[in-house]
Design goal:
homotetramer; alpha/beta; Rossmann fold; 9-stranded mixed beta sheet
């Protein structure tokens, strides 16, 4: 039925969908670790070759996934555990974080659409230091190592007329951070992963990622400094859900029904720019924002 | 494939789905009127018998639908036209509106979930007079006929622990309005109707309507005063969309594949409490809120 | 210069202002406790006679004040300490809290005015159980004692046309909680107390309290069940600030200048319905909302 | 009593305060026009010399003030009249607006503090075209002259760690608009001017303007393109209000009481970073945002 319908921002799901078709994937390494006590599953996918990047439709680089089934449920201790795990992963993947970095954190997405507001929500609660350090020096903080933290919520293109990448490029040139951390809502392929998975990658953000329409890439190449992206799938593309349901039912027999294809394509066209989300999305986004916010504050030790 | 999956709050769609199965519907009258200039289609469905009510899964009463294809697009003149049409319909369906009514307007839904925030958004911008009339008399308004307008946003059960109906019952007993107008986001069956249809009904609000989980009815029977409901479909139930896509493909052949049924049911279970909405839902809800707000203010002549 | 200008919702300040005029106050008992380690000052004012109630312009009852100088600063450990202290005070003052109470928490104020949004913000983050207990019984919670918690944000009169007291009366009659806890933003006399003081009282809420215009009382008398009020001064009345500054300068000499009085009154008239608040009010309200929310959740043990 | 306390962002008030001290102001031209029918007063202050700029503590340039006593009251026709007047003034002061300009509109201020949210609110409702023109060309708009409109809400320094000026400089270099229009909340000297005055100036935005703390200038000099600023006074500095009240009472006699000075200074220190605002600030800001938004959309003819 073709991969044309499938849309996922998770490298984990991209790999699974290929495995399903029983292809052996060279140039992709996968490590999985499961902590029974915390029920956290950490998967580390490294896409090492151009070929595998093309096959998975994801750029070369490292993708770490933290899966936490109860992430959006009200359990503060568990949230702290996830936060600590995310913090640990950030400390490993953000280059130079052990030194006194200047970091810009960027919250992508649309704060007026609940499922797309993750990035702005995280940024709203970060500890920001750059203006204080610039005015009063590190002395203001009474500790040896003070990271210089700034943050930006660029807004979505429909409201700014500009690509997030354009806005960031300008601000980065002007304020010269050492590294950028981008937070964004993603699209998953399966509703089972919604609001219970965090992906961390050193490949940045790419066209069409997430709910928003972020057309230009935000990567080390385009920004001139390393870009770490933290993403949480909060929606599933509506066409993808229907496509997958049909595939399940029709199975391999699909190839025998070319007319059916036609109909499916037509019916999915209606679903362009539609997405699926849960009823408690406001509560869940709030919980996850806290988890990510605490992890970033912790990783930067502000 | 059974109607068990189908979920729509629009009487119009309920009727269509029955027509499709080629049943003649007795006890349901339908009048349609199309204004070519304004491109507004007004459909008036009256469910007159208990039988037809059961068949359509909608209570007996009048359901008026205003369909306006470009309702959510940025065109202020067109919005005013829709507003005037809605105002006209309200003036006909709200009992006693030509007199000096005491009206309570209720905004149902969750203001923190964009697609469910229609009710709260409308109420946020209404002209409220009750407190002024109570304190200064009608003299404060310098006109002969001053309606007594109050408004309430009860919030959703997950955040109040109470049914909206419980809250309203109490407030109605205490403040004794002559009539209640309820505004709520609805679920449609087809994405084509999202954010371009307004339904006005004198049957009130019923369990499971809209995105929110409003379990108890808000009707003349439960409230003791007439209840007019204004609703706009802003979401489609995710299970309904998949169900309808499958039905299109499998057609009448479905009955031959009982196993397929089973699979479908299982895969739809995952979609419980999931809904489909569009990417520009924030902008569209804002536009439609203005239209409804202006129509209510106009109809009450405040 | 007359007390006509002075506006404070804090019993603590009302008492101080009387002391200043060197009157001995009978019928008012005051206990103060200072914890050097936590830097928390707990003052317990009990107004025991009608006379003293009249003099202080506050109803008879108990007023506990927690003063925490750094309450609005970013220090999570300190916030937890304040939260625990507030929780302890609530456990003492809420009648029957050791039993399995049914509690309704009410967030007064206007969520669209930052300094007045304390009540709504607190309620937004509470753990609500009533709907779960009603549907699934206590079994849903897997503990012996499950309080039945509901919550309401009635909105301000300018937007509802109804007094908060009217709305509450209706809802209380309908849902019959054992006790009401009301959270509201208050007005202090001195800017020094803004956002660093919490008042807990068993006298409820009275006309003109806080920024909002809550005209009717919310008390055990009007509601039929005990009403505990938690308030934090977030604003100072603008006329009060000018009045106090003038008084400081003119001192007792004021009586000699009747013309000056006249001018003052005129200039203060301009300030009617104006209030003074700080630049970081959004951040501070957010911090304090968390403190109060955690304390209520803790006191109810949900 | 010294101008050290006086804080106003309105050139109109700065001039008045000098006039009061009966100094003749050379290098300042003032034109006033009053429209009896619309009750709009338009004042055009041009500061033409360095000397007068220093005396008024305002940079050389043109300051147009539209005073509309009922600006914040609910009267849509009147709002349209103010909007048209503002549109007319913009069409005169924005250089090159008759051509097909590329314009960036910037909403300064803090969207989480009601009185400071004017800029973000205006930008939220603008018609944005830049992304459409870039993707589809002017053909998308079906008219001859399509302005290229982009917009940005940079956020306040406490939340970004960056000066608004730094962010803008970067974005301007990257996206190269022909002109910048900045919208911001201002501080007035008198509560009488709050939410009923609009100032338009070609001098941009300067340190300490408005409620927010925008330290670096946003001017043609710093940005490289003309900067037009639209401002509405939404607050009065608390120290200014007390200062002015004291001055009224003490009058010229103040000089005789040096001790009084001392006390005043001390008492005003407490008021640092405190401001005075009205109770209906949410409603009023909403009304005025609409007025300005419509005027900008109209002036750009989008």
């Amino acid at each position: 039925m073709g991969s044309f319908m499938i849309r996922t921002d998770l490298a984990l799901e991209a790999r699974e969908s290929v495995d399903e078709s029983e292809q052996v994937l060279q140039g992709v390494s996968v490590d999985e670790e499961y902590n029974e006590k915390s029920e956290l599953r950490i998967t580390r996918v490294v896409i090492e070759s151009k070929n595998s990047a093309k096959l998975l439709d994801k750029p070369m680089g490292t993708y770490i996934t933290i899966e936490a089934p109860a992430m959006a449920l009200p359990d503060e201790d568990y949230h702290q555990e996830i936060s600590r795990e995310l913090q640990k992963q950030l400390q490993e993947i953000v280059p130079g974080i052990e030194k006194e970095l200047s970091v810009m954190i960027v919250g992508l997405g649309n704060r007026d659409v609940t499922a797309d507001a993750l990035g702005p929500n995280v940024v709203d609660n970060l500890v920001i230091t750059r203006h204080m350090v610039k005015e009063f020096g590190k002395a203001a903080y009474n500790k040896e190592r003070v990271p210089v933290v700034s943050a930006l919520i660029p807004g979505v293109m429909a409201k700014t007329g500009m690509e997030s990448a354009e806005i960031l490029k300008g601000v980065v040139k002007e304020t010269k951070p050492d590294v950028i951390i981008v937070v964004d809502a993603l699209a998953a392929r399966s509703t089972k992963r919604l609001n219970r998975t965090i992906q961390i990658t050193n490949t940045g953000i790419h066209p069409g990622s997430g709910v928003g329409n972020h057309r230009n890439s935000i990567t080390e190449e385009s920004m001139g400094v390393p870009v770490i992206a933290i993403g949480v799938p909060t929606v599933v593309d509506a066409a993808t859900i229907v496509n997958d349901a049909l595939y399940k039912v029709l199975g391999s027999g699909a190839d025998e029904f070319p007319k059916v294809f036609e109909e499916i394509r037509n019916s999915l066209g209606e679903l362009y720019n539609m997405y699926v989300t849960g009823k408690d999305v406001d509560y869940e986004i709030k919980q996850i924002s806290h988890i990510i916010c605490n992890a970033i504050n912790g990783a930067l030790d502000v």
